């Protein structure tokens, strides 16, 4: 089922087929139709299930091994005394690979998928607002990314509290805060991770406008993320690394300290926002000038 089918409400009437997408529903309705497309695809559902399992596997492994507080990586070592930290640990593990892959698959398929099955030409010639179509596709991909982040966070918190308890949360700085304060910090971490992925989603969307092969756009996005990660691991690049999309992905650990550096967080969000603006504009320019008569 394509966006064109949903936009037309599966109507077989001749007058419905020839009407512009503008008149078939509001932006909100088109957005809901796009969400139905995204969340009904089996591969997208499978990715959500995989992400939901990650915090469960981490929590189970830590519970069975019973490490002492302070042992292992900072977030993992905090789990036995802080059930809430399971959400942070799961996000840390998912962010380098699983979350970028989920974003690449959905955003990379957004435009290229329509082109691949032949409905993009129809969508662009009915006539339709190309800007509106791009906005709807972007919102669909970003909503899926947000759902992935919230799923990991919520499952991590619930499972973590269930097996490790819900007492006071000890931060990375050693201070202890209330459980409510910990929940607020968890919401902040989830929001920061979402902003982290904005740039990558825009890159995937841009690649999606360049090809009719969704797998190509997905693969190109993953390759770009890998290149950023490799370059970020080269200390000789010095200050240039701060401009890389992946360099600030884990800076949300500032939210897990008693003294939060707003400058670090803002800079960490500014970089992906710039990537999103640049590649979002490129995607819009490509879509606006696409030749649908060829």
Overall description:
There is one protein chain. The protein has one domain (3-288). It has a two-stranded antiparallel ribbon. It contains twelve helices and two strands, in the order αααααααααββααα. It is globular. Strand 1 (169-170) and strand 2 (176-177) form a beta hairpin. The protein has helices spanning 3-8, 14-17, 27-40, 42-65, 74-77, 85-94, 98-117, 119-125, 130-164, 179-208, 214-232, 262-288, and strands spanning 169-170, 176-177. The two termini are 24 Å apart. The relative contact order is 0.13. It is mainly alpha-helical and 294 residues long.
Brief sketch in words of this structure:
The chain is 68% helix and 1% strand.
Key descriptive features of the protein:
mainly alpha, globular, 294 residues, disordered N terminus, two-stranded antiparallel ribbon
Secondary-structure element series: HHHHHHHHHEEHHH
Number of helices: 12
Residue share in helix: 55-70%
Given helix and strand content, the structural type is mainly alpha
Whole-number tally of structural domains: 1
Tell me the number of strands. Answer: 2
Distance between the first and last residues' Cα: 24 Å
- By oligomeric state, this entry counts as single chain
Strand order of the largest sheet: 1-2
CA gyration radius, whole angstroms = 21 Å
Average pLDDT number = 82
Describe the biggest sheet? 2 strands, antiparallel
């Amino acid at each position: 089922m394509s966006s064109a089918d949903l936009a037309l409400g599966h109507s077989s009437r001749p007058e419905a087929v020839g009407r512009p997408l503008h008149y078939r529903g509001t932006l909100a309705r088109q957005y809901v139709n796009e969400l139905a497309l995204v969340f009904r695809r089996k591969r997208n559902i499978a990715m959500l299930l995989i992400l939901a399992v990650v915090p469960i596997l981490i929590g189970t492994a830590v519970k069975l091994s019973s490490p002492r507080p302070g042992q292992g990586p900072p977030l993992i070592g905090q789990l036995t005394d802080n059930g809430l930290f399971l959400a942070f640990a799961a996000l840390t593990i998912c962010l380098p690979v699983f979350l970028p892959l989920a974003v690449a698959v959905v955003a990379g398929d957004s435009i290229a998928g329509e082109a691949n099955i032949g409905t993009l030409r129809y969508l662009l010639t009915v006539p339709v607002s190309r800007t509106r179509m791009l906005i709807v596709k972007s919102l669909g991909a970003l909503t899926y990314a947000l759902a992935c982040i919230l799923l990991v966070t919520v499952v991590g918190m619930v499972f973590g509290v269930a097996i490790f308890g819900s007492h006071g949360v000890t931060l990375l700085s050693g201070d202890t805060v209330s459980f409510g304060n910990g929940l607020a910090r968890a919401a902040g971490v989830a929001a920061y991770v979402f902003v982290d992925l904005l740039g990558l989603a825009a890159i995937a969307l841009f690649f999606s406008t360049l090809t009719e092969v969704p797998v190509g756009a997905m693969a190109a996005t993953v390759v770009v993320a890998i290149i950023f990660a490799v370059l970020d691991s080269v200390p000789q690049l010095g200050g240039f690394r701060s401009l890389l999309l992946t360099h600030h992905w884990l800076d949300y650990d500032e939210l897990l300290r008693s003294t939060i550096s707003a400058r670090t967080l803002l800079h960490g969000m500014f970089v992906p926002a710039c990537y999103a603006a640049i590649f979002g504009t490129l995607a819009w320019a490509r879509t606006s000038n696409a030749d649908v008569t060829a």
